[in-house]
Amino acid sequence: MEKVRVIIANRQNQVKIPTGLRMLIRRCCHAVLRMEGFEDPAEISVSFVDNDQIHQMNRQYRGKDAPTDVLSFPMGENGEYDINHETGAKILGDIVLSIPKAVEQAKTYGHSLEREVGYLTAHSMLHLLGYDHEQGGLDRVRMREKEELVMSQLGLPASSSYTLDRE
Questions:
Q1: pLDDT confidence band for 163 (50 / 70 / 90)
Q2: pTM score, whole prediction
Q3: How many whole angstroms separate alpha carbon 28 and alpha carbon 12?
Q4: CATH number of the domain at 4-153, please?
Q5: Within 10 A of 58 (CB to CB), how many other CB atoms are there?
Q6: 57 in Cβ contact with 106 (< 8 Å)
Q7: Beta 70-74 vs 4-10: how paired, if at all?
Q8: How far apart are CA 38 and CA 42, in angstroms?
């Protein structure tokens, strides 16, 4: 795999970012790209925000007046991406992750913050690569299978208590 650059910015101050979380996000991005056979140089931006920030973005960009856990802003369409002319990397897009929401969901689902952030990153990366689960059905099942495959590869498989449905 060519060079993959993951730019991570902490834009919140409610939750201290645990040591190793940034590396986990980078590993997760690499694992998704490897699984999907994405061989080109790539660039991904990840921002940590709080619930108020993600609520505002969810309302502005999706018309949903509620906080959410993660938002994806793909820069490509049908496999065509903008190129960073300085590096030649394909700009896959932006991931915006609510760290307080991830902490809350990790407690709800009974697993670690690392598992939750890894899952949300894998989920969002698949969106950046063109996957969509909004219509449900087979697309949703395929996306969930890919997310769980990446989590297993990273040593963060779902626990048996992981039963609540997301949405």
A1: very low
A2: 0.91
A3: 21
A4: 3.40.390.30
A5: 20
A6: no
A7: unpaired
A8: 9
Give pLDDT tens digits for 43-99: 999 999 999 999 999 999 999 999 999 999 999 888 889 999 999 999 999 999 999
Asked if 44 contacts 4 with a C-beta cutoff of 8 angstroms, the reply is yes
Q: Which two tokens stand for residue 66?
A: 């509620």
- What is the rounded distance in angstroms from the CA atom of residue 31 to the CA atom of residue 61? 28
CB burial readout 82-114, b (16+ within 10 A) else e: eeeeeeebbbbbbbbbbbbbbeebbeebebebb
Q: Could you give the angle at the alpha carbon of 115 between the alpha carbons of 111 and 119, nearest 5°?
A: 125
For residue 146, give both structure tokens: 């890919």
Tokens 């080109």 belong to 40
Instruction: Please give the sequence-ordered ranges of beta strands (E in DSSP) within 41-116, or none if there are none.
Output: 42-49, 70-74, 82-83, 90-98
Q: Provide φ and ψ at 84, rounded to 5°.
A: -75, 110
What per-residue confidence (pLDDT) applies to 139?
A: 81
R_g of the chain computed on alpha carbons: 15
Structure tokens belonging to residue 78 = 């049908």
Strand partners, 43: 5, 91
